Amino acid sequence: MTENVVSTGRPDRAEATAATGRPPRLARQLLDEASARYRVAGRFAYYFARGKLSNDPAFGSIVHLGWIRPGSRVLDLGCGQGLLASLLLAADHGCRVRGIELLTAEAQRARRALGDAAEIVCGDLRAEDFGRSDVAVILDVLHYIDYPEQDQVLQRLRAALAPDGLLLLRVGDADGGLRFRYSNFIDHLVFLARGNRRGPLFCRSAAEWRKALESLQFQVETVPLSHGTLFANVLLKARLRA
What is the structure's pLDDT at 118? Predict the structure, then answer.
């Protein structure tokens, strides 16, 4: 099935990505509109949204490469302050987004910014009901829970996704050498900055993540997302086999 690419006045974004291997940067109009929602949630929420959306290659890829079809039911695990939902609203995707976020302050900022435009649940993704969705998105979250819990979350997601459903899973590649060690260092700093005690990270290589998804009948495409960054990130675009 052909995926729909968001129109942003720059029809060359997908073609340029294919030619250079670089993830597309988020269009300025979408950046402005998605960030503007956070003004009501305070200066930190606004400037964090603007910085994250403009510098994180996952967001430009998601909208400009058409990975989420208009009208999809989207489950965002570890949604933070709801940036994906705000971006899909700015892109006029007509998606219904349900985000699950563990940290109360993050969930509160998301609710203030998004209002009734998205459902934000403050809870633990290991325990919350996933409901039914067409697309599930997990960006940089699963390595905070242990290996059996990671497998349980993936199994539950498989059951929650509709036939031909899509999982967008970004992970650090444990085979990424120095870049991977730098990624882990930053993750620890972020974890501490959010008021959590330092704990172990449960990381796998990209090949191990791929094997885990394929064992659940996902067809997996690996999309590098480290170009232009210091991180060893890959995005696994996993679609349920029909």
Answer: 98
The pLDDT assigned to 175 comes to 75
Q: How far apart are alpha carbons 120 and 110 in whole angstroms?
A: 7
Q: Give SS3 for 60.
A: helix
Q: Domain containing 234: what range?
A: 13-240
Whole-angstrom distance, CA of residue 59 vs CA of residue 111: 20
Angstrom distance (rounded) from CA 201 to CA 237: 22
CA distance 154 to 160: 10
The answer to the question of residue 7 being in a domain is no
Q: Measured between alpha carbons, how far is 57 from 50 in angstroms, rounded to an integer?
A: 13
Per-residue pLDDT, 187: 62
Total number of domains in the chain = 1
Amino acid at site 227: H
According to the model, what pLDDT value does residue 40 have? 98
One-letter amino acid at 42 equals: G
Query: Which CATH number covers residue 175?
Result: 3.40.50.150
**Contact criterion met (CB below 8 Å) for 69 and 134:** yes
Averaged pLDDT in 10-residue chunks for the chain of 242 residues? 43 49 88 98 97 94 95 98 98 96 96 98 97 97 95 98 97 68 59 62 93 97 73 88 78
What stretches of 19-108 adopt beta strand conformation (E)?
A: 73-77, 96-101
**C-alpha distances in Å from residue 157, one per residue of 71, 80, 204:** 19, 19, 19
Q: Does a structural domain hold residue 4? A: no
